[in-house]
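User: Predict the complex.
Assistant: Input components as received:
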Amino acid sequence: MTGLSELLHDELQPLQRTLDTLETPAVLIDADVADANLVRWQQRCDDLGLANRPHIKTHRSVAWAMRQLQLGASGITVQTVGEAEVMADGGIDDLFLTTNVLGAAKLARLGALARRTKLAVVADSDAVVDAVADAAREAGATITVLIECDTGGGRCGLADPAAIAAMAKRISATSGVQFGGLMTYPAAGKRQQSQKVLEAAIDACKAVGIAVPVVSSGGSPDMWSDEGLAPVTEYRAGTYIYNDRALLNHGTATLDQCAMTVLATVVSRPTADRAIIDAGSKALTSDLLGLDGYGMVLEHPEARIYQLNEEHGLIDISACSAKPEVGDRIHVLPNHTCVVTNLFDRLYVVSGGALLGALPVDARGRSG
Amino acid sequence: MTGLSELLHDELQPLQRTLDTLETPAVLIDADVADANLVRWQQRCDDLGLANRPHIKTHRSVAWAMRQLQLGASGITVQTVGEAEVMADGGIDDLFLTTNVLGAAKLARLGALARRTKLAVVADSDAVVDAVADAAREAGATITVLIECDTGGGRCGLADPAAIAAMAKRISATSGVQFGGLMTYPAAGKRQQSQKVLEAAIDACKAVGIAVPVVSSGGSPDMWSDEGLAPVTEYRAGTYIYNDRALLNHGTATLDQCAMTVLATVVSRPTADRAIIDAGSKALTSDLLGLDGYGMVLEHPEARIYQLNEEHGLIDISACSAKPEVGDRIHVLPNHTCVVTNLFDRLYVVSGGALLGALPVDARGRSG
């Protein structure tokens, strides 16, 4: 992992702490595990002939995005204009912004981005197509627009093939924008349904004389499944860099492939069955993602984090054979890595059990 | 509100945006509503002869803490060493840190704080008392220690009066620390139970010859209740500055007293019954606090925010008479204001319908 080492060397902030003296709560990233996750997924995309366009919402760090590109990614995916700006500032020049952009000020920022990077966005209404086209013309740039398709996920997107074809025609006929293809985020476990909707949409576009250059799909939970991939040319996965308890529970990742833990200290043991750590909803978030409890304590897998206050996690340790004591430091595998990253200015990078330094979360808080 | 105007004048960052062109999602604070909340609560504390020690975890802004002190607060409450450092840097010199502090590096920071501010902390174990005392002696300072009591809340704290009295004796006999009294966070709706535990603890301390100078209680939900206040000398409330949907639902605040909203844009209307806004779990958080849905849309109170993705809120608008359209800007009353504040570097301050400027969230992310 020479490339990673070089990137980290440039990006990591030096620390006056070792792993033993780091103040808690702190987010630890095992660089070797994370990098192996990136390498393994790139290899699979290469094997399948899929373009790999990782979603950087999970790490929000320029260094990791650069590493993903170095390994062979065709570009990156971003979810907000703010993320796009941070990544462009970091030198990344091929961005796919998978959100409908609206509002005069934000559209002006989009136009400015299009002047300095290769930029694609999505749309699922004429209002968005027209707004993006206006912004592109205003900036003297061209923006690629993919149509977001609802293939069963029930989020944004068009589902009717005729409506998708009509919008493809509209995009093709509008100056400032060019038609880039179709984009979807399939429902978990429903990739065959997604395939049917996409194939019908592609046929409808072809029937009106419009080629579909890119079919972009995404999602970490089903990323290793071969089901229903056929029309897809590009894959957007995000969480796979760090993985988390939700993906572990889903069978997408093993525990050895989970790169992020939240280091916390047991600050109170008020009863025989209750331990309290200094990581609460401002460190772990309240995201449950269908799981029981707010994370898994690696040292005490029988423990259950049953409640979070803002700075405290309340743990039922009644089932633990060895009970954590006041002052113990424990590692929590968070339910959902992407929202944890976004709470911290920096993550602490570990390799071979040693603390290498702090990695800035460059786009933290850039939801606007 | 001359005092507030002066404080805001010093603290607000000027903007190139008006309220109409502000990029979403953005957190808006109605300064007049927030200030009236502060004035009303200070008046009640004055009427009751209670020391008001507001918890700054809700706003994490030096300017608001200064305003609370200007109105008559006896000092402030903080929940983390990081919050304490930010407030001390801002010139606030009377801090109550209501958490058990452990770990060599964090204790060293605590000692450094004690050299420059009046500082009290809590403890509920001998290990914490000894650690704080060591840190104080190391710094050549004295730290006041209150004993955290579990009066029914089931968080940290001792519940047994004899154990509390024994710890009070230990604190009194230890150099570097001095006994400051008792602290609790009562369970909602159980202040009479809290009263009984506190009175028994006070009696037990007196029986061993230890006076209890301060009895500190807290919590916004029951702050307006007269029940079980008798032994309490100091009150810690935080959320009341902004209020939120949880306190509205609890009957603690009216809608007119809610100062924080999240401004969002409707970016998609995929079906007749579904609207999607550009505020998701990275803007509203997944905190439910027992409520149905992730916030209340002020313009469409019949709408239900039934799912959050990271940057999108999915809204069921089937019950709405007038349906929001793509491009509409709406205001969401969040379930839990404290965790929303912590996601943003700045909040946007509004007065009389005009945007005054951006207020930095000075201690955002300072959970460590």
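The mean pLDDT of chain A is 96.
Let me know if you want any component modeled separately.
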